[in-house]
Specification:
The structure holds 2 protein chains of 2 kinds.
Chain A (H helix, E strand, L loop, with lengths): L5 H8 L12 E7 L4 E10 L4 E10 L2 H14 L4 H5 L3 H7 L8 H18 L13 E3 L4 E2 H11 L4 H8 L9 H17 L41 H21 L2 E9 L2 E8 L7 H16 L4 E4 L5
Parallel strand pairs in A: 7-8
Antiparallel strand pairs in A: 1-2, 2-3, 4-5, 6-7
Chain B lengths: L3 E2 L10 H7 L1 H4 L10 H21 L7 E4 L2 H15 L5 E5 L4 H14 L2 E5 L9 H7 L4 E5 L13 H10 L3 E5 L18 E5 L10 E5 L25 H39 L3 E4 L9 E6 L4 H10 L2 E2 L1 E2 L12 H5 L4 H4 L2 E5 L6 H21 L19
Parallel strand pairs in B: 1-11, 3-4, 3-5, 5-6, 6-7
Antiparallel strand pairs in B: 2-8, 7-8, 9-10, 10-13, 12-13
Pfam families (chain B): Aminotran_5 (PF00266)
EC number (chain B): 2.8.1.7
GO biological process, one term (chain B): amino acid metabolic process
């Protein structure tokens, strides 16, 4: 079962503003019984101030659909129509203390019902932006145009980002392959236009990009269970560091590199990498490896800092 | 009020007698059944006994007809994949539109990845198989027909004996996913035409993580998991001794309770079903009331959505389940109810109550007390409900 927040449960078990406003001057109906959820939102707007004085709803749907509908009515009452239109579906979800990702469409339904009700109040016709068949993601009504705008405006290059920004694929994910193809196509076009680095472009089935950027700083290694004996003296510490480096050097030399100890200052160990290690993209991995071994040997957190040649 | 568990088609409570029988095989009799020493030999003896207990429930003659697996899904996968390998020149599968995903997802993958042609036989509004379509789909290209013995959502029983005979007339093997039927339906496989049958322990008070595939003597079986010589090389991997032994005890208990399932449990189910239909308008039983598991009742409540019902039932201490989209993460209602063309107005509000021998009359009365109020609350919020005097109905139940 879903993990609903306490607020969602509260708004499902004791929903506020359920029912009908007989003389509502704005009514929005979205969804359909066939889709599994539907919401009829009724608002009463004071024409002089454009302020929403009351809101009620009827919902056919799951627990979070009912909670989202009720939350929406609570949020919009007292707001002017223009203020209310600034509300996004994320605001509804936030009001409820979050919704499970698979249930975000419930908040989207509330957002759409509000737009429909306001359009009805203003005497405008409200219609879906999408033509049936043009939708990539049916669950969230995402068509290729919407996907392309989101991808280009936000430089999206992964399926995870696409789901976060548009929610496409985030529910039943039956559209995953179609959306993958579309994302690949859009990214490829962006590369050829020179607005996206080819290395970052999404390629269906490719491995995710490396995390080399994240490795540039080597964080302190935290030992959860220090097993080391009593604290070492400075001489003992330097000896231990030299022993570890002596053990590790043959490995580095095997790859055409080398490493020497420059200084030890408290828990900071300065080393100089030389030979093939210089400019090696994996140098940070090497440094982390050394750091790990030193921390194990010394029994305390250590930071290994590579210093440039001639330091 | 103690909690009322009416979701036994999802899983059952492990019988304490099963647990007692299993416990020594974790710490005292921990040997590997394949070992020569006493630690292993004792376990081997216990497994042989457990196999005979399971054989007795299924009515099989030969011990090597049982191949233990990790679950029912593995047994289903093994059966279909093996048939495609052993049935030379045959590259088609005949199955039904209402199978469990263990069959349907595998078939979808076989179509895509291996170019296998799969015939999905439809059902009528009560979930009964279209026998004409089944006959027509069978042919010289059919490797195997796989039709479930009992449907997990509606409880519908399929005439597997006739279906097996028809498959054999076409030279095809016949497999049945009997995960929901074992322990509830009498079986005598030694006189049956069925070639392969899948079962799962946790549906009849054994633990999760143990299943079995029955393979009729003489039917060739290609292993899906290769490795050691366990299960005569047909399913490698160290025997899950505690679970196999637990499954044996559960099988023996199921055999002794088989009559009770079909008398006392059936009466409880019938009382629950008729009580709900009397108290709640615009509700209908889905499935075939004439040929159904004795423990299952699937009732569709119009104009409301299943998840809301389940949340309110849960608050009242009652566990049931739903084929509703919103509880499964998909946005479509159950493929079984769609195959039966249950109208959307009702399919989203279908609730499955599945009982076991552990249920009592008090459990049923508690549901009858709280359910009308729950339906009324949700209908009160629904934009499609016209009120208590509603005369409009999107469909007429085929029976009351």
């Amino acid at each position: 079962m879903w993990e609903y927040s306490d607020k969602v449960k509260e708004y499902f078990f004791n929903p506020k503003n359920v029912g009908v406003i007989e003389d509502a001057n704005g009514v929005g109906e979205v969804g359909a019984i066939a889709c599994g959820d539907a919401l009829k939102l009724m608002i009463q707007v004071d024409p002089d101030t454009d302020r929403i004085t009351s809101a009620r709803f009827q919902t056919f749907g799951c627990g979070s659909a009912i909670a989202s509908s009720s939350a929406l009515t609570e949020i919009i009452v007292g707001k002017t129509v223009d203020e209310a239109l600034k509300i996004t579906n994320q605001d509804i979800a936030d009001f409820l203390g979050g919704l499970p990702p698979e249930k975000m469409h419930c908040s989207v339904m509330g957002y759409e019902a509000l737009r429909a009700a306001v359009a009805n109040y203003r005497g405008e016709t409200w219609e879906d932006d999408h033509e049936e068949g043009a939708l990539l993601c049916k669950c969230f009504g995402v068509d290729e145009g919407m996907l392309e705008r989101a991808v280009r405006n936000n430089n999206l290059t992964s399926m995870e980002q696409v789901a976060q920004y548009t929610k496409a694929t985030a529910s039943c994910s039956t559209c995953a392959e179609t959306v993958e193809e579309a994302l690949e196509r859009i990214n490829a076009a962006m590369v050829s236009e020179g607005v996206l680095d080819a290395r970052d472009a999404f390629v269906a089935g490719a491995l995710p990009p490396t995390r080399r950027a994240a490795r540039k700083t080597s964080p302190l290694v935290e030992l959860s269970t220090p097993t080391a004996p009593a604290r070492l003296t400075t001489v003992q510490r330097i000896r231990a560091v030299e022993e570890v480096l002596t053990e590790l050097r043959p490995v580095l030399q095997g790859d055409g590199g080398d490493c020497e100890l420059v200084d030890v200052d408290g828990n900071k160990v300065m080393v100089r990498l030389s030979g093939a290690c210089v400019n090696c993209q994996l140098a940070s991995v090497t440094v982390q490896g050394i750091q790990q071994r030193l921390a194990e040997r010394l029994g305390e957190p250590v930071r290994v800092i590579p210093v440039p040649a001639g330091h | 009020m103690k909690p009322v568990y009416l979701d036994n088609n999802a899983t059952t409570r492990v019988d304490p007698r099963v647990v007692d029988a299993m416990l020594p095989y974790f710490t005292e009799q921990f040997g590997n059944a394949s070992s020569i020493h006493a630690f292993g030999a004792d376990v081997g003896t216990a497994i042989r006994h457990a196999r005979r207990q399971l054989q007795a429930l299924l009515g099989t003659e030969f011990d090597h007809e049982i191949v233990y697996t990790g679950c029912g899904t593995e047994a289903d996968n093994m059966a279909l994949l093996s048939a495609l390998e052993t049935q030379a020149g045959r590259n088609e599968i005949v199955t039904s539109a209402v199978e469990h995903p263990a069959i349907l997802a595998l078939c979808a993958w076989l179509e895509k990845a291996r170019g296998v042609k799969v015939h999905y036989i439809g059902v009528d509004s009560r979930g009964r198989l279209d026998m004409d379509a089944y006959r027509k789909a069978l042919g010289p290209r059919t490797a195997i027909a796989s039709i479930m013995w009992a449907n997990n959502e509606t409880g519908n029983l399929f005439d597997v004996e006739t279906l097996a005979e028809l498959a054999h007339e076409a030279g095809a093997l016949f497999h049945t996913d009997a995960v929901q039927a074992v322990g509830k339906v009498p079986m005598d496989l030694k006189t049956s035409e069925i070639d392969m049958l899948s079962l799962s322990g946790h549906k009849f008070h054994a633990p999760k993580g143990i299943g079995a595939l029955y393979v009729r003597r003489g039917v060739r079986l290609r292993p899906m998991i290769r490795g050691g010589h366990q299960e005569r090389g047909r399913r490698a991997g160290t025997e899950n001794a505690p679970s196999i032994i637990g499954l044996g005890v559960a099988a023996e208990l199921a055999r002794t309770h088989l009559d009770e399932e079909n008398t006392r449990v059936r009466a409880l189910r019938d009382r629950l079903e008729s009580g709900l239909l009397q108290r709640i308008s615009h509700a209908m039983v889905t499935g075939d009331p004439e040929r159904r598991l004795p423990n299952t009742s699937n009732i569709a409540f119009e104009y409301i959505e299943g998840e809301g019902i389940l949340l309110l039932l849960n608050k009242a201490g009652i566990a049931a389940s739903s084929g509703s989209a919103c509880t499964s993460g998909s946005l479509e209602p159950s493929h079984v109810l769609r195959a039966m063309k249950v109208p959307y107005t009702a399919a989203h509000g279908a609730i499955r109550f599945s009982l076991s021998r552990e249920n009592t009359p008090e459990d049923v009365e508690h549901v009858l007390e709280v359910m009308p109020g729950i339906v009324e609350t949700l209908r009160g919020m629904s934009p499609f409900w016209d009120g208590a005097s509603a005369t409009r109905s999107a469909f007429t139940p085929s029976y009351a």
